[in-house]
Amino acid sequence: MTTLLIGGAGYIGSHMVKRLIEENEPIVVLDNLSTGYRDAILGGDAVIGDCGSSALLRGIFKKYRASTVMHFASFIQVGESVSDPAKYYINNVANTLSLLNTMVECGVKNFVFSSSAAVYGNAGDDPIREEQTCAPVSPYGRTKRMIEEALEDLSAAYGLNFFSLRYFNAAGADPKARIGERHNPETHLIPLVLQAASGRREAITVFGRDYPTPDGTCIRDYIHVDDLCEAHLIALRALRRGEKGGHFNLGTSSGFSVAEVLDAARRVTGRPVRAIDADRRPGDPPVLVADSRAFQSRFGWRPKMPGLEPIIETAWRWETEFFVKGKHG
């Protein structure tokens, strides 16, 4: 019953490794360390390599007898996907299709895919349901949707069973500050705000204060990374029971504006956070909030840290312990 985690040295993948270790689950991690860190893998066996290598995967499946694969190995920067789309199509699509083909060849039938709210594109103001039309507006979002469509076809043709979990702004860190966000460059709002609070960054840029929202700044749905991992564990166990998966949103169904994130960070840290106003960024919708009732009603999952402050508290502990106090290697 070994689980293979592709990209287990990255942000969400490493937290999933931690969660499975807590459950005494046998695991093996495959990561090429292009964006991940070896010291973020807190246990289990680790193989350094690329998921696009069929020969490497065949060896892993044979040695570890993996029955389920969890995929966290996509490139995720929307802006970079626009300026360098080939990089995204090669890694996010071609390598993942190669992985899926090798899984089918080796008889590995269970797959949990890290998808994204980016598949919806500019979806509007209402909480987004899975039935909403998928119309991604970036190459990154299109790569995620392409894999989702491939999963549907492979499921029909080969019996591959899958969960595609669409995230809405993963945030936070391990409460014990063993692992957290280490993107380079960092593009996510909460760690950028906390870098400004710790002094590693002079200020945070607010892109637009004229949106049709209560305070004029964009609203997003932030979900703690450990809550995401709990949902992945539920999906893993459902696949083992032979349940049919599908596409599911994962969020808190509550939105917080950029201004509210700034205010919450100032409260949690007790530090000033300087904000610089700038024009809107092209393609930023005013509101992106998940309707997660489908996954919640089917599996009884509920986020345990649904508010901003618990998320920011864990991220701030990581920022201060790892970066500010010199643990960063």
Which strand order do you get reading across the main beta sheet? 3-2-1-4-5-6-11
Could you spell the SSE succession in H and E letters? Answer: EHEEHEHHEHEEHEEEHEEHEEHH
Mean pLDDT: 95
Number of domains: 2
* Terminal Cα span: 34 Å
- Structure annotation, total helices: 10
- CA gyration radius, whole angstroms: 19 Å
- Protein structure class: alpha/beta
- Beta-strand percentage range: 15-25%
Which terms summarize this structure?
three-stranded mixed β-sheet; globular; single chain; 10 helices; seven-stranded parallel β-sheet; 329 residues; Rossmann fold; alpha/beta; UDP-galactose 4-epimerase, domain 1; 14 strands; 2 domains; 40% helix; 17% strand
Descriptive report:
The protein is of the alpha/beta class. It folds into 2 domains: 197 residues, Rossmann fold (3-Layer(aba) Sandwich), CATH 3.40.50; 104 residues, UDP-galactose 4-epimerase, domain 1. 40% of the residues lie in helices and 17% in strands. The chain contains 10 helices and 14 strands. Strands 3-2-1-4-5-6-11 form a 7-stranded parallel sheet, with helices on both faces. 46% of the residues are buried.
SSE layout and pairing:
Blueprint: E1 2-6, H1 11-22, E2 27-31, E3 45-48, H2 54-64, E4 66-71, H3 78-83, H4 85-106, E5 110-116, H5 139-158, E6 161-167, E7 170-171, H6 189-198, E8 204-207, E9 219-220, E10 223-224, H7 225-240, E11 246-250, E12 256-257, H8 258-269, E13 275-278, E14 287-288, H9 293-299, H10 308-324
Parallel strand pairs: 1-2, 1-4, 2-3, 4-5, 5-6, 6-11, 7-10, 8-13, 9-14
Antiparallel strand pairs: 9-12
Helix pairs in contact: 1-7, 2-4, 4-5, 6-8, 6-10, 8-10
